[in-house]
């Protein structure tokens, strides 16, 4: 057992002081180097970031160029292979001109079909079968409307034109109030009194479109007229629809995507469901 009276050995002071000074020197030197080299490191990182941004931009430009090259190649191929729009001995000058218009605008999905002269005396279900359409909702009509309160006399301003062509389904009921609301949304700040849509005068519609009553088609018109396509038509499946073909007895079929690409219509809700009784009378009178 150790003697309690033996004094304890003191901790060496000098080595302890040396260690403390060494630590202080280390942190001082480290702080000095950080202060000296940190700006250099930051500038180096910034340089690397700029290089990375340039590389990324170059890659995006290269991808865009490749996509553009593909588009150009596809366009060249389509020009090299003209779209066939067919011909029928019954074609009138209007139908022939319409076929050529579709060919010139590379509308490869367009199909023309001549129907019996009593086509409109038959119910919608019969017309569906004659056209071999997937449903009655794939058969559409086109009307020419005039905004009689429009400040413009022509169709130069697409969002607020005096005349519009509206494409919608026979099996839906056209709603002028919904159409007015859709056009008003394109013209914020213009009062409601500046919109009053009515069916255009037949003679004026003929002058604008080049198509007589019952033969109006919402493309290839004599005067460019903005088109409003019903959102119900845009949602069709299969995605194509039938409409007039330049003559009362000629009909035209086109894919929705291609029609939207070429005509760039305003797609909007312009119809409401037809009453069951009215729909039944239309389908099977």
UniProtKB/TrEMBL annotation:
GO terms for molecular function: aminoacyl-tRNA deacylase activity. The keyword Transmembrane helix applies. Residues 139-261 form the YbaK/aminoacyl-tRNA synthetase-associated domain. It comes from the Eukaryota. Coiled coil: none annotated. The keyword Flavoprotein does not apply. The chain crosses the membrane at residues 16-41. Keywords: Membrane, Transmembrane, Transmembrane helix. PANTHER family: CYTOPLASMIC PROTEIN (PTHR30411), YBAK_AMINOACYL-TRNA SYNTHETASE-ASSOCIATED DOMAIN-CONTAINING PROTEIN (PTHR30411:SF4). This is YbaK/aminoacyl-tRNA synthetase-associated domain-containing protein. It comes from Strigomonas culicis.
